[in-house]
Each structure stands twice: as structure tokens, then as C-alpha cells.
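Suppose you are handed a protein chain with no further information: no name, no annotation, nothing but its sequence. What can you learn? This example shows the usual starting point.
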Amino acid sequence: MSIALVRALLVLSAHHSSRARAFTTVHGNKLHETPSRRRRSANDAAIRKTSPPRRAGIIDNEMRLTTERSVIIATKMTTASNTNPDPDVDHRRRSRGIPKEETGIYALYDEYPKSDGSGVKICIMDTGCDLNAAGLNGTTSDGITPKYIDFLDCTGDGDVVMNETVVPFDYATSNKTVEGLSGRNITVGEWAENVGALKLGAVRLYELLPYGVRKRLKRERKEAFMVKHRALISETQKTLDGLNGLNDAPPSEKSDADGDDAKKEAAKKVESEKKELKLLLEQLKAIMDSYEDYGPLMDLIMFKDMGEAEKDNGDDGDDGVWKAVIDLEADGNLVDATPMAPFGHARQIGELAFGSAVTFCIQVYDDGNILNIVTDAGSHGTHVAGIAAANFDSDDDDGSSDDLNGAAPGAQILACKIGDGRLDSTETGTGLIRALIAAKRHGCDVVNLSYGESSWQPNSGRVSRVFADAVRDWGMTVFTSAGNDGPALSSLGCPGSLTAPVTVGAYVSPAMSVEQYSTLPPVGGDDEVVVPLRGASYYFSSRGPTPDGMLPDVCAPGGAIAPIPRHSLQGKAQYHGTSMSSPNACGVAACILSAVRGKGVNCGPVELKRGLMNSAVRAVEVDGVDDPFAQGAGLVSARDCAEYIISNHGKRGQNLAIDVSIPARNQARGIYIRDEVELEGPMTFGVQVKPRFSHSNQRTSSEMDELLSLELDLQLKASEDWVACPDSMRLMSATERNGQTFSVRLNTDGMTPGVHFATVDAIDASDPDRGNLFSLPITVIVPHTKFVSKDEPTLKLNDNEHVILKGNGLDIATTYELVQGVPNRRFLTVPRGAEYATIKLRGRKLGTSTSPRVLVHAIPFVGGDMPNSECQLKRLYAMKDGVEEEYHVRVKDGSTLELCLQLLWLANPCPASIEADIEFHSLDIRSSTLISSQPITITAAKEFARLGASTPLRSEKLNASCSLKSVRRTLRPQSSAIKLGLADLDVQPPSDAEVRSSDSQQSATALGTQIYEMRLGYKFSIEGDKEIKARPSIPSLFAQIYDSPVDSQLWALEDSNSQILAYGGAIHHADPVSLKKGDYTVTLLIRHPNRDVLETMKNTPCEISLTLPDALTCNLYDELDKASTPGLKDDGRSPLGSILLHKGSHKDIYVSRPMEDLPAWVAPGDILVGSLVLDKDKEGVTSMDVLYVAPPKPKKEDSEKEKSDSEEKPDSLEDVVFKAKLDHMAKLRAKNATLYQEHATELKKERPSSVPLLSELLSFALESPVPSTELSEEKWRAKEVELVYNAMQNTNDGPINATTLAQYFGLNEPDKDELEADDEAKKLNKEMKEQRKLLRKTLLSRAALAGDIADKDLSAEAGLSEAVTELKKWVSAACLENDKEKVKLAIILARHARICQRKKATAVSILLKAKKDLSGKDLKQVDEELIKVYGLFDGMGHVGDNLKEGILAHFPVLKRGV
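A reasonable first move is to predict its three-dimensional structure. Written in C-alpha cells, the prediction is:
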């Protein structure tokens, strides 16, 4: 029976089996079963490409590196792949979407039954997956096994704390409702009948959505809002126009006195209405301009499903499973909702509402204290999962030969979200480590990670070590993308530069070019003859070697048309990048594993990687462009790999990893000679070889036997004749010697210019067909400039290309011939003293039918720990006839600058010819290292910095400027807390060897390692009335993920209301946030398995970068005396201007402190940061960091000598006793009202006109508990305030005479000089100010309470009107001390306008102004008042609804944090 027939029968049987249903879905709080159903085929309507997720590993189109358009061809293609041809393969099968012919997967399918990945588990570590995406929402190829094992959010961005609000609940007596945290009354359904207690939570919809969906929903909701709002504006304008028409009516001929008065009154009323309508129009437009959408808040309910059994007899019911109900529509109606259990329990999925189309599931952790709502963070992960293992039903067969499936349709997927939605899908160390732990726990065989960042030191750091553990100790093979930072050499990122994973480059075959990109065949020569397309690495695929000599391991097809999430509003998309090549190779590996297991072979990570590399097909073997720096061993070959593994399984050392290093080169993993000076040094290198055993801490007898029995007779073979090595070595465990060594000698004499590559391979002498057991990569670069001199300035490379040393003996001219798929490199030794290079490009032989685009990639230095991303130049050059483009890149003298050009050929691969001039420049002013922590520093005391500019290479223009643009403030933590991580996610498993060796009770090492979490709290304030942009960071841990000393770092910035304003991570700076005046907190999360490490980091500093509103200029001088007296202005000085420095000259430069006053909020010790630009036209390569340490603030000058405190008259004994009594009364205020009143009566008799006493009585009226006998709090407090108001009047023996007070401040208040000269006047002034303060506070409180009463009872508007009249005499916003009082005033005036004057628009205007100008927690009252006013207008419901969502966002009901 054929394999195809078996598959068909399996699928057919699955259609008749209830087990074929993969999961159930929840839509609109209702659960629906989702059976297998027909998906769209690749020949459906054209699918447009979507933007890739940010930093998710695919080629980033927004980098402007390429504008290739990817399309799907709807017509049948007949071009056959020339890779792995085999006469036994059924070539009628085609995989136009997800390439398979290139990897020989069909040959594997045909030869090995069930070799489609069946029985293999793949962990996809990515942005997460759409559980309902086509091809992934059903089963594996057997039609029975669910495709997804589980979906886990390893980042924690979907975590909601559920233990803060727990309410008892009885379905029978509760009226079936409960108040949610949103404030909505939630109506529950029969699902709550047996629930004893409910845990309540809430989450905003937008916190769960991927960035692209959030952006789309905001756009759609804004459009809907604006439609309603414009209609409201039109209706308001229409009403206003109608009133304007009344004024145009002809006057009546008859008139009388009463009639005239009535008309005047009517006209006055019309004018008032018109004024209100005009004001309303202004406010409506202001609302439209300030529109913000924070999204709906969804209530969450969680409970433990007890079931009837538990309620009756204590059984666990439904296994005591925690379940959650989400108010998806945010309307409080959960009657028909279906409680959801964790995905692994019941395979339930839901879909978020409001048109998002985002699929989700839930997980529950910490015994119900944390609910995790799992969504994807972008389309990348679904696309990757589809490439690896999509399985489309046979019903999808449209009769064509097109194969829609992924590489391993029989494999299961564990989806692990490691792209944190809070960081715009950037990976975190927490996510990576948790995902690897989860992959081990679920028994995954292979792992794919299509992510990557820059790395300073590969193979170092916590995350890197866990990746090594996952492969070497936990038995999982990790596949990772090489990165998209090519085509220059040494552009590998991390984890692609790690040793343990399989690093995969991106390859494109001729068939892929045609089918995925509609590539035109290139034409060449003068006759423009059509040239066949060739397979090659994608131009963006990152290249080796790493600084220590490593290359990618293999390559695989790097483009695919694969499923993407439904929320992308399309079924499939074409993406390309090494993100696509890695899952293709991973899927191939899954197929290989299923094939060899079918033969009884259990293959581990070492065997699998060795098999992939030894069976890989070099591109040149299939008429492709060979590039070991991008392709490693070559293109993966599925059937060849399976055969290799089966034939070599069980041989000695086959499953043993062997580490190779060069001790003299800092344990480098290869030999990499890059700079010309190295060619002159010794060319003999000692090589250390060390077998890596994965053994338990206390070796078992079998492990000891493995150590003792290892003895391999190896033949050492160099691939090139310029490498000499010993003929053989005998490899043993050599643990006591830390490995064995041999030497390699390189003969670089006679090498041609360019890059040379070789390997030293170790082959089993007794079994040469076994391939190499280890390999030492060797890369030697011979700079082109080594072959040119003043005597022989021209180096001819071929008939069309040359390198010329120009007449100045410094600059280089060269030509490039660019063809499809081939990067063209020039290696130039940077002259001594050079600081930057100028690159000038011109197209030549430009035909009329082509407009080539070229990727320009220059890497000036490789060495140490600096990643290429820190120093490289990367630009897209569009060739135009007669147009020269100019670029600049920093260089390091004596190092090798690679200038690599590659044709962007995916759409149009026609050849191109380019001329390039490279000029070297220097002002001899920068540090010799490209990345330096040595900025120009102006200390607080010295006030200037000195440096010098010289011109050793050529004449240079010095056109300098210096400015400071931001302030860095360093904070120390004010709080710290360390606790254990989640037991469900944060226990790092022991090694497989340790588990095997542990006894039945399990040793402590076999239980795993618990990870700890530490949270540090930092506080800072923003001062002043203007908003300031701020951005926190942790500099000591920044720009590190894979090589970080800790698991990860994540921070959250929140305001005093606990609203999260921004999140930030370890690798990319967050966008600055505009902050109003107020207090703010930064919470930092750091994780590590060693608590002691966290204890030592409790004082980790946090840096707040604050943007200056206006840049501060630092003048530049060439004279010391001018710089040392920066405050002088009128001595005829002038700053340094633009000058030409001739070759060999020198100029001293002094950078003075800024002349402008520093902003008042800048504190002593703050660091002002900016840059010194030496040439404004070349800022990118001539700028240097400048720091200015803020000095202590100058002392304010006193106009007159002030009296010291010692000259103040001391309080009398009576005064001291009276104050003590007041203090005692204040303590009684909230505790004992009766005793308080007794003391108050006594003190009023003692001092009836005491202002402090009256102030305390006012506080009692406003803050004390309301007597239980009172029915209205507002009326009782108003009565008490009125008593205080009356008591303070001088007519009642009180201290305040309003008339006298008004005259004093309005007419007679003495000036400062008079007060200083007259103690009695000074005393009187103090008393008057105290009286005024008391009066204002009383009037404000009196009016506020009158407003509260009138708001509930409109018949009380007269009291409000009278209170406001009195209030306006003494109180304005300008005279109030804080925003809390200003908010109270705004609400009073708005209520007065709304209730007493019937002016709703005026009320809106007052409240909106307060909202704009003020800050703090009390603004919630302004928003709540606005909602009341909006409710009085017809057609403003949408505005009120939007504001309600804003309140819940600005004043969170549940704190999330980190």
C-alpha cells in the first residue's frame, strides 16, 4: 500500500472520528466546536504581503534595505528545482508555497514510511501562534493527533493577578450578579451555579493585542468615533445657523414698550444660546483633536470548578480545574459565556472581540493566583510554525500537484511565545529560558528560534548557557536563524553565533525566485543574452565568521508562502529571511527523526547535527553560488541525512560532541586572520580538542565506561594546500589534561587578494565515509590594498574590475561587476590615523532598461567583543545615470575595512557595474577604538574641556558645533524584594544524565533549579509646568540578552495613579514618554537562579534620560582664557568658526560649559548629555559624546540682610499649650467626635478668634466620620462648614473682617521693604495672610459641598449660586496652592455653569481646560464630572464612552507592572 493511500485512509477515518476535533473555540463568550474544514488553497485570490513583526527575525522592510515586492503567482509553474535530483522522486509534486524540493524532502517521504515528522514534537519559540490559522488548527497528518500540544506565554505579558479581589458567591442568593472591577454589574449564567467563590480581575483589550492589530483597531474605532463626532458637529452647526437666521428676520412695524422689552429679552437669550453653541463647537473640535483610544476594559472571573460531586461529598469534581470567564464584549453579560480551562486541559480557544479576530487560550499558574491570557504578539510565529509543520486536510487538494503542507505535517507543535507584547514583540531572557524549560517538560525533540539580536560575547551569559544546556544536557536540538544582517562578512548575530544550536542561513533556489518573487531571468553581455538563474544565499543572510572564526552550520530555503494569523486579515503571506530558513530546516529534521525512528534508531542532538552537516549539499553541486560564510556545510538534504544517521548510528563517538578551540586566541572556535598586520605574525596555531561528555555529577558505571573506552583513530585533512596539519591524531577522553592538542600552520605567501576559506577535518581513519567528527574553520583575508603601492598603484582583478591607489597614496578607486547572487567584496587596510572613510559610488554602463539597486555594506572592524551592528554602514544604493552618492563610515586605523556590494536581485537580477572611490579622513581627535566609554567631560568645577584636532592625512574642514540635548539622572533603588519564580514555569530541569543516575528518592540535583525574581523600585519626580520627555534604562545591563549575566531585565514606568506609561527591556531603548509634573516610579524585574547574585544587585542604578526643552549651546574657543571665563560676553570674543586645517596642522579646541541657565529642575549631580560635531556636514562620523556635570545651584542674592530665626520672638507658654491642645484635637478628629467637640467648645471659649482653631474645625467638618443619624453626608458637612464660616466672621466675634481684608490686600498691603523695616507691619501681614488662607479654604469647601448638594437636588441651586458668588470674590485658580484645590475649583465652576446658568458648553470648557492644565489623582473627578455633562447632550454618548475607557486606563483598577 502506498504512503499516499495510507495517509488518505487515515484522513478519511479521522473525518468520521470524534477525536478528529482539535479544539473548541469561544466566540463572543459562546463556545463552538471547530471540526476539520476546508482551508483556502494557494490558488485562492492573491494574498498581499504584510509587514513583518519588528525585530522578529525576518528581513525588515522598514530598514529600507530592500523594497522587493513579494507576490504569489496564481498560475501553475513548471520550473523544476535542480537541487537533489533523484529519478525515484515523483516530480509531479510541487511545493510552491513552502519549499521542499530543495531539501530533498520528497525523496525522504518516498523512501521512509511515516517520515513526515509523525511522533516528533517541535517547540516553536517565537511571537506565538494563531491556534485557529489554516493548516494549523486541526490535526497532524494522521488525522487524529492534535496539531498543537499547548500554547504558552513565556513572557508573562498576558499575566493578570487574580488574588487581590476574592468574593464569596452564592448563585441562588446573589441575584446572579456580581460587581466587576470595571464597576459594571456582571450577570452570570448557569455555569456559576456550583461556584463558592469568585476571583475578580480585569484587563484592557489593547494589552493583549499584537501591535499591528492594536494599530488597526485603533484606526477603525477612531474612524467610527469621528463619523459620529462629525455628525454631532454638523448638527450643532446647523442649530447655530438657525439661530443666526433669527437675526436676519425683518423687524416688525408695530412696537410697544412691553413688546420691545420682550424682544430684547428674547434677543439676549438667543445671543446667549449662540455663544454657548459657538463654545460647544470649539470644545467638540478640541475633543476631536485630543482623541485618544485606550480600548475597552474586560472583566475577568476565575473560579475552581467544584462540580456537583464536590458540593455534595467533597470530591474534586472536574479535577478541581481552575476556569476563567472573560467579558469579551465588555458589556457585563456573561449569561451565555463558556468558562475556559487551560488549553492543555480542554483544548479550548477563544477569539477576542471588537473585530480583532485574535485567537487566545488561557493558562493558570500559582494555584489560581495568576491568570495568563495567551495571544500571539505578531504574525511571525504562525508563519514559522506553518513552514515547519502545517498540515492541510486532503479536502484542500484542488486537483493540482501543489503541496500546501509544511515540511513536517506529521509533527506536533508546542507554541511558546517569547516575543513580549509589552516590548513590541522583542524577545526577553525570561521568555527564552521559560520556553526551553517548557520544551523539555513537554518532551520536545527539536526547537526552532527564529529570533536574534547583536551579541558582544557569544557563548557567554545566562541565556547562552541555558541554550547549551538544552542541547547538551536536555537532549533537544535547537535550530536558530543566522540573522538578516548580511552580506558582509562577520555579521552573524546571536543566538546564531552560539556553538550548541544548529545555525541556518537563508538560501533561494531558481524555482523559489520564479514562484515567490516573479523574478525576471537576468540578461548579460552587450547582447543582453538571457542568463539562467542560479541558486544562492539571500543577500541579507548574515555571514560568518564570528570574531572567533565560527560560521553558520547549514542553509535552507529562506522564503515561504505560509499561513499567518487570521487577525492579519489574510490566510497566507510571503515572508523571507533566515527566520524562514530555520523552521524549514527544523521541519526537515523532524522528518529525519521520524524516518530514523521508524528504523529503530534513537538519534540525539549531536548525531542529528553531525548528520545534517555531513550530508549537506554544497550549492556548487547544484549549479548554485557557493558561499560557506552564509551556507556553512551546505543545503540540508533530508534523505541523505537520514541514511547517514542510520548507517553510522552506534559507532564510537558518533553521539559525542567534540569542542575545538585555539587557546592562544582566547579559546577561539576557529582561526580568523583579518587584518594585514596579522599576516606578518606567526602562522602556527595550537588547536585544543576536547570531547564533551554529558554525565551526572557522580558518574555511573556506564558513564565511566564511556570515558575509559573512548579511543578514536582520526585522520586530519586540510581542505586547502595552504593549510598544513598533522596526518592523524588518536582522540581519547583526556579529561585529566583538559583535552588533546595538535598544531596547524598556514602559508599565506602567494595568496591572492580577497577572502580565503579552508577547514581541517577530523575523519575516522577506519571509516572515511563517516565524514568528519569535528572541523576547524579557517578564514584568511588578504586585503586588496596589500597589492598596490605608489610604485605599482593598479591591481587588476579581471578584465572589468581593478583596485587603484590614488596619487595621494591614501585613497582607493575600485570597480565592481555585480551579478545575481554573488556578494562582491573589497578589503582595504585603513591608513594609520584615519578616523572615517567617505565612500563615493557611481553607476557605469547603465542601460536604459534597468535601474539596479545595490546593498552597500561596510564593516570597518572585527575583533574583541564588538558586534558589527555597532560600527557598520548599511545603505540601499539606487543607481541613477550621472548621479554620485556619498556615504561615510567610521574606521579604525590598521584594521581591515570590508566594502561589500551586492545586487538586490529578487525581482530584477540584471547585472550592474559600479565605480567606487574610498577616501580616508582624520582630525586625530577621537579615541582609537570605535566604541569607547570615554566622552568629552566638562566637570562642574573646571567649566570647560580641552582637546586638539590634527590633520595627519589631508587638509580637513573644521566646522564644529556643540550642544547639550538631554539630562541623565541616576537613581538608586528605594525598595527591593526577592521571591521565587513560578513553580510551573521557572524550575530549570536537571540534565538527562542526572535524572538517569538519581535514585528512586531523587537527589537534590535531579529536582531542578528554581529561578528567583527580584523587583527593584525607583522613584523620581518631574517638576515645572511643562511636560518633559523621559526614558528610563539600566545601563549596566543594557544591550545584553543572550550574553547577559542575568536571565533578563524588564522595567515598567508608572505614574502616581499606577498607570503603566511605558515598558522597557534589555536590548532596545523604549520611546521617550512625555511626563507632566508629578511623582513616578520605575519597577525593574531581574531574574537569576542564584539568590546571592540578586542580593549583590540590590543597588543596581537606574538612569532616567530627560530631554531638554531646548538644546543648550556650548561655545567652542581656540583660546584658553576665553574658555575659562565662559560668563564674559562683552570682551569682543567670538566662538570658533568654520576653518580649513591644512595637512599636518593642529588646532586646540576648548569646549565651554553652556552659557544659558540650566532649567530649574536640573539638580546638582545630574549629567547633561550632548555631542560635539566636528563637521556639521558629516555629523554621523565626526560626532563625539559630551557630558557636563551639573554644578551646585548658585545662592540667591538677598536684597537686604534678613533677620535670623534666632531674632524671631519665641512663642509664649500660652501659645505653646494652645498649639498642643490643637494637635491633640487633630488626633481625636477621626477617633472620638464627642471628646473632640468638648475640647473644641473649651478652646473656642479660650480663643474664639483663633485662626488655627478655626482651620482645625474646618478640617473636622470635611474629614471626620459622619454621625450615623445623618441621612446625607453632603448636607451634614455643609452644615458644619457653614458653622465655621459664620464663626470666622467678625460680626460673630470671629477674626475675619472681609472688608478690612479686601482693603489690606487690594489697596494697603505694604511692600517688602516696608515689611522688613517694621516688625508690627510684618506681624500684621502674616496674620492677614493666615486669615485670607482660611477664608479661601472655607469658601472653596463651602461651594464644593453646595455643588454636591445641588448636583443631587436641583432645587438647591440657589445655595450653590450664592456660595460661588462669594467664592469668586476671593478665589481663583492662580491663588490656589496645589492641583487638588484647582480641580475642586474647576468642578465647582463647571457645576455652577451647568446647574445655575444652564450653560453646559461652558461647563465642558472649564473641565477640559482643567484636564489639560492639571495633573494627579484628582483628575479622575474631572473626568467623572465630564461624563455627567456629556450625558446631558444629545449625540455625545460616544464621547462619554470613550472617556469612561480613558478613566479605567488612567486610574487602573488592577495594577499589572512587571
